[in-house]
Amino acid sequence: MTTAPLNTGSAQQSLGTAARRVPFWHWVMMRRRASRSFGQLRWLSFNSVLARILMINTAVLIIVATMVLVTIAVRNPLIEERMQSLLIQGRIVAEIIADRATLDSETPAIDVDKAEAAMRLAVNPTNTRARLFSNTGEPLADTRHLLARNQVSVDELPAPGRTQTWESAIRRFWNRLFETSAGRDLAMYEEGPEVAGQAFEEVSAVLNGDDPEPQLRQNATGDLIVSVAVPIRRTVSVRAVLMLSTEAGDLDAIRQEQWQTVVLVFGLGVLILVVLSYLLAWMIASPIRSLAVAADRVRRGEADVTEIPQSSWTPAEINALANSFRTMTAGLTDRLDTIENFAADVAHEIKNPLTSLRSAIETLGRADDENKRQKLMGLIQNDVRRIDRLISDISEASRLDAELSRERASPFDLSHLLQTVMSLYQDQDPPLPVSFQFDMSQWVGPATVLGREGALAQVFRNVLDNAISFSPKGGRIAVTMGRRQAPSGRTEVVVSIEDEGPGIPPESVERIFERFYTHRPAAHGFGKNSGLGLSISKQIVEQHGGTIAAANREGQSGAVFTITLPVS
Q: With a threshold of 0.85, does the pTM exceed it?
């Protein structure tokens, strides 16, 4: 676990290099690598992007096709148009029969021969069946059974295998679907030549003086048939009733043609859907797989962060993910470099007192003078204290680093935190040899900061402890809190901590935040400071999006530490 600040310079350089767009040829090569590495994946597994896109799109297409089919079954405009045309045709034929076949007498009689001739002439060319009933419902004529001279009566038979076959069963199924969807029952169409007019609802309605609607029925083989009934009048009285009906299979042919069109469009839609879904899945999954391949190559050390693909050919969301991968990888790389450097620095810092300690112990065994032995014992004690101080500071730094990783950031009032920290120093018993001045007149109201309160409290304690250690007896430490507007436009809180010590040597201003760096007069004692406090403080402040800087007071002795943090 590291306790030192991140080396952000290399991270910025890596990200700057990574921000360049990958050329198209490199993007294609990454796609090929992804295809080879992930070729064993089953694209049509339930968890694949393609399978889920196909399921959703196909479900939508099936719902639309089902709605169209149900609409055709419930309210078919072509069938309704056929009903209206049949009704108009019936009225015309009824007028012809009334003109040619009715008698002028008041008796409700009709010339059947003339009526048959008129029916044969007007109905046969239209592929429509006409049936004539008397005003009492007795069957008089039927175009299907009209016999001309030297002609044989022919009844149309179903096609071989049509009756009681799967075709008939399918028609009956669709008819039942029609009945259920339309909320009505389909009556049976009676085919026999001896069937009376009262067997048909529309004929009975005409005989009763009503104006019936066209009826939809089905025959024994499941074919749909539309029938209409119109009165044949002479003056006011009804002389007969004409019933027109479509031939078996006419309406089914219309409906079958519509269904075939829907099925054809549905099949074409499925084909287009599959192609577009595959392209969409490829556009989503292929860049992600390329990211996975690149991440594996970076993990194995075969590539660096710059080879994580990011191209203008991929969606913006995938590029955002790739950029996050780049940032994360660069951060992890710098983190590893920092850990490695920190471990080397720790080894170096511990090795120095150990070397001195070993040399003193070896010399102690050969020293005969008591004064030399006492000096060597003093050196040994100093080295032991220095090692103890180093280990304690490293342990404390590791604990703080772990807390930074686990603790969640939350908003808090920085002014209240500063007042609490200052009170800890001002109320010590016995009192410290320095005085404190806290001024926040430049800030009005709470200074809300988003961060980890305990970690920032440690920052202020480190800086204050450093100021106390350099301040002369009776010196003053001034803590000022104010605000400023950053170049980015955000508001920042600025905390300045001034002391009246000797200040910072010019050559140490840039190095004061380095790990294990310390520059103290000999009077302060050797080994009392590890040089980690300010380094840890810089790491904490930068993790909160702020800055910390050190400088000398203008025209006076002493140092100034300035800490800036963004206000949430």
A: no
